Amino acid sequence: MRYLLIVAASLFLHGAVHSQTSASALNFVEYQKSFPRSGDAWKRKEDTLMKQFQAKNLKFPFKFMYVRSFKYDSKLEVWVKSDRKDKFQLFKTYKVCALAGTLGPKRMMGDYQVPEGLYYINEFNPRSNYHLSLGLNYPNASDKILSDSLQPGGDIYIHGSCVTTGCIPVNDDQIEELYILASMARNQGQDFIPVHIFPVQFTNQKSVDYLNRYLKDFPEYKNMTAELKDIYEYFDRTHQIPVVSVNKKGEYRMESEMPELPAKEVKMVKKKRPPRVVKEFTGEITAVVNTLPVYPGGNQEFQLFIDKISKEMSEYLEEDQAKTYVMMEFVIDSTGATHAVKVLKGGNDEINYRLAEAFEKMPAWTPAVRLDKKVAVKLKQSIFIEK
Q: Strands 244-247 and 193-198, how do they pair?
């Protein structure tokens, strides 16, 4: 068998809805209400939650719940739907109020790491030392292969009290809502409530930049990060959870086919730019000058300009481009105006087009001087761009 499946895909990823709901499932909410702490939360929160759902035009009660957590961004999202064929809709985003460890998966007991990967809620604890808690099935099938074989660690929860040594903590008010929502989904028959933990929110460029810097120091996590990114993007495009398996190496493998982006969402980098028409400078260019032209504010301001556009261009690097050096050429005339902007090498169609536009829009420089006369000169500037 090529892959070791996490569990039957539809059960793990969407939650099982029994054709004949058991008595224990029917009474799961009542059972949770029988405990003082969770029962008190139900009394205070149920009506408030119902009104929040109504305000967002979401059905209440719902049948399916999906949780996404982002370590670096310190966020936890709750998505819901009422029918298997429906698309998930975002109900609420909660703030994760503390973080232990760093980016990267949990690999052994005592490493203080929050896991990364695909999990589900396997425990409801109304008597938690951390107010209320929802247990996760760490170590999962992947962790059992990749983590320490003798002491992989465990006892990973979403819980209250805003303290952690490797869990996902929220404040007590928030865990009460999460606990009630998960209990409702469980009561509707969703035995496996998926919780996907990602290193970053992949649509947040600042977070992705931080992740890329982290992966330079820990390249062994690049493959796993790419696997999780695919799962994240599949959900973002479809609002459905993909079917995922784990192979014998412990790697996640998405079995669902990634849908194409709608045409309006395709980045400009995917489009072929028309050739730029460079208007040549027809005046005289002086090769030797007494003083070079000066950008408004001096060399320090020019460096800030270069740093700014370098950062802006990073999002237009193509998938197979981790970095690029771009060599620009331009003329500053005797009035300080910019002419004949060219990209001599590097970049790609989109980056080069945008860089040329940025240079053409530069404010007027203080022109170069040759023998007390303002003259035109040709300059070159290299720009380093990386993801």
A: unpaired
What token pair was written down for 299? 């060399």
User: Residue 175 class from Cβ within 10 Å (0-12 exposed, 13-18 middle, 19+ buried)?
Assistant: buried
Partner residues linked to 244 by β-bridges: 254
Helices (H), the chain: 9-14, 23-26, 28-33, 36-55, 141-146, 172-187, 205-217, 222-238, 299-313, 349-360
- Structural domain boundaries of the chain? 3-254, 268-386
pTM across the whole model: 0.65
Q: Are 65 and 193 in contact (CB under 8 A)?
A: yes
Burial status of residue 198 (CB atoms within 10 A of its CB: 0-12, 13-18, 19 or more): buried
Domain spanning 3-254, CATH class:
mainly beta
pLDDT digits (tens, 9 = 90+) for 113-126: 999 999 999 999 99
On the CB side of 71, CA atoms within 13 Å amount to 25
SS3 32: helix
Cis peptide before 367 (omega within 30 of 0): no
Counts of helices then strands in the chain (DSSP H, E) = 10, 16
Buried-state track 332-352, b at ≥16 Cβ within 10 A, e below 16: bbbebbbbbbbbeebbbbbbb
Cα–Cα nearest to 30, from 183, 179, 177? 183
Q: For residue 25, what pLDDT is reported?
A: 43
Q: Which of 192, 188, 65 is nearest to 123 (CA)?
A: 192
Let me know if the fold of 3-254 is the same as that of 268-386.
no
Structure tokens at 159: 């819980």
The ranges of the chain with pLDDT < 50 are: 1-25, 268-270
The span from the CA of 103 to the CA of 73, in Å, is: 11
CA atoms within 13 A on the CB side of 115: 30
Identify the CATH number of the domain defined by range 268-386.
Answer: 3.30.1150
